[in-house]
Amino acid sequence: GGYGDGAPDYGKPRVLADVEDQLSILAIERFDVLFIHDPPRIEPTLAGGGTLEGLEEARTRGWVNYIGYGMNSHDAHLTVIDSGRTDALLCFSDFNLLRQTAADRVLPAAADADLGVLNGWSIMRGWLTGTPLEQIAPRDKWNDDQQRAEVMRLWCEEHGVTLLSLALQFCLREARIHGNPVGNLNVQQLEANVAAASKPLPDEVIEAFQAAAL
Hints:
By secondary structure, the chain is an alpha/beta fold. It contains nine helices and four strands, in the order αβααβαβαβαααα. Residues 9-211 form the NADP-dependent oxidoreductase domain.
């Protein structure tokens, strides 16, 4: 209920209607997991008759196995974790080669609560795939993250590894993260991602990269 003009509909009925509708469209009986995605405000989703209660009811009805939130705010994640009402969470843009801020509070709290964690943006919108950044954006438009990503790409070239392998395997080494969803635009990207994740890099490579403090 958060798209278009006007205030979002945080109500339980809207959630149940949406879930039922999507099950019908996809012709499936149950979702593995459903996330409340980036709510503008967290409090209405947790209130009685709110969004999370709708997902809890969907879980009770057998429409979904696991429920949680997909969002960036660490304070909001901690509030939800403290509620004890969810099974999983999705964080994004906060555990990858460029930054690991999720490790400060969110990952420890999620581990203590035995929650599943999905880590979005492990390749940061393609900046950490090894594609030269000039093919993605003009150099004079690069932000700090993109400038650092290009430095990392050059480091990988010098050390005979691919940035994609380093980016994915760095995230895969974090035991408190249970999945790193990566989008694939085509078969070529899918095969590249699988290959990059499948052949483990030596510990020395990871350690050398971290020591470089790029």
